[in-house]
Amino acid sequence: MKFKDSPVIELPVRNSVLSIEQDNGSMHVGTSVWPCSLVLVKFLERWSSSSSSSTPNPYTHLFNFSGKRAIELGTGCGPAGMGLFLLGLENILLTDIAAVMPALKRNLKRNKPVLGKMLKTSQLYWNNVNQIKNLNPPFDFVIAADVVYIEETVGSLVNAMESLVSDNGVVLLGYQLRSPEAHQLFWELCERVFVIEKVPHEDLHEEYAFEEADVYVFRKKLLAVTTTGECLSQS
Questions:
Q1: In order of start, what are the domains of the chain with their CATH numbers?
Q2: Alpha helices of the chain — where are they, by DSSP H?
Q3: Per residue in 23-34, pLDDT tens?
């Protein structure tokens, strides 16, 4: 699937279908749908609906969304945030920079019949400490997909994730290498703050297991454990 060839991307989530309108002529990357957001949603959908006794679900406790607060960084057109809302993460705040907000709000309005309401949004620049404080952290879940592509923003992104997630919370990251320089710096900084667990590729949704896209689970180092009780780090 070529994500930029169509102005509208459809994302089935359980019994609903999200319709995401892109603006491929925009100068802002946030107005296009990027694959990691879809990979992340479909991974979570796979395990949130897994009920086979012959296949143990290693993510049952990790993805218990009931009563949890969540925030998405770099929401863009909104597929990840809207998809997670449909999967039960109902108290979720969608954030991005001012230039992307019109595209996000347009898609929220477009999908309101499916969502049942307009989801909450807030303007957020990762390097704006006051904006971060005004969001009233910490959050149980910090969501991010395809947000690592400019080296200059990496430090602010990692600081924002650390500031926003609670000590026993989780960062869910959909990731694809976009810039070697940003990639190297991002993982160097994250390894100082988080214990990092890479989801095995075979655990992704089989129809959305793109070779270049991965899903990671971050926990703060002080209290970090994986879903199996082991402490892992990015290799």
A1: 8-223 (3.40.50.150)
A2: 35-48, 79-86, 101-110, 112-115, 129-134, 151-164, 180-193
A3: 766 556 667 788
